[in-house]
């Protein structure tokens, strides 16, 4: 004779179970996502300057000023100047770091610790600062043919003397090492956050000597008006 348990699981419609699964998955994905898009009431994210100095929720380790200087002047080596750059360009780079379109381990974490509103505030803060730059780390001689090379390959988007246009950011007075590193990343398609892959096409036509010469040339073009830091 079979005995039947008096306990039983009530029947739940398949539709209810599907909804429950959807809610569970949504919560799990949101918990795992580090690219926050919602606004935050974190007191460290109330202004762009405070975020730049404090790192927001990421803390001092991720403060922009740690690498880019208290006035956005850069470090003269691998961290570019941010002061005075176009706000739209700065904001796009933050979004691209967060999305992985511009790979960089530290900057990815910096951008993902901020929500989309905080990224805007940081961009506005640096764009509003007077343009400052560290003095070039090297005064190596630039090949006399390099200005013509720049005019032929870069000037259309980045402007005469690298001062920038609506199509490309300023490049003048950026560290030579940083500029060369970016060109190399474009060549390898490691960086791919431009429209139409124009930078990949341009960079892949350059050889190693031309990459170095263009970087030195642009690094030695002073800011106008000149506000430089030792």
Structure description:
The chain is an all-alpha fold and 230 residues long. The protein folds into two domains: 43-128, Cytochrome c-like domain (Cytochrome Bc1 Complex, Chain D, domain 2); 135-229, Cytochrome Bc1 Complex, Chain D, domain 2 (Orthogonal Bundle), CATH 1.10.760.10. The chain has helices at residues 14-32, 48-54, 64-68, 87-99, 105-113, 116-128, 146-153, 155-158, 176-187, 198-203, 208-219, and strands spanning 133-134, 228-229. Strands 1-2 form a two-stranded parallel ribbon. α4 (87-99) packs across α5 (105-113), α4 runs antiparallel to α6 (116-128) and α9 (176-187) runs antiparallel to α11. It is globular and about 50 Å long.
CATH topology of the largest domain: Cytochrome Bc1 Complex, Chain D, domain 2
* Number of separate helices: 11
The CATH architecture name of the largest domain reads Orthogonal Bundle
Please give the share of residues in helix.
Answer: 40-55%
Name of the level-1 CATH class of the largest domain: Mainly Alpha
Radius of gyration equals 24 Å
SSE layout:
Layout: H1 14-32, H2 48-54, H3 64-68, H4 87-99, H5 105-113, H6 116-128, E1 133-134, H7 146-153, H8 155-158, H9 176-187, H10 198-203, H11 208-219, E2 228-229
Parallel strand pairs: 1-2
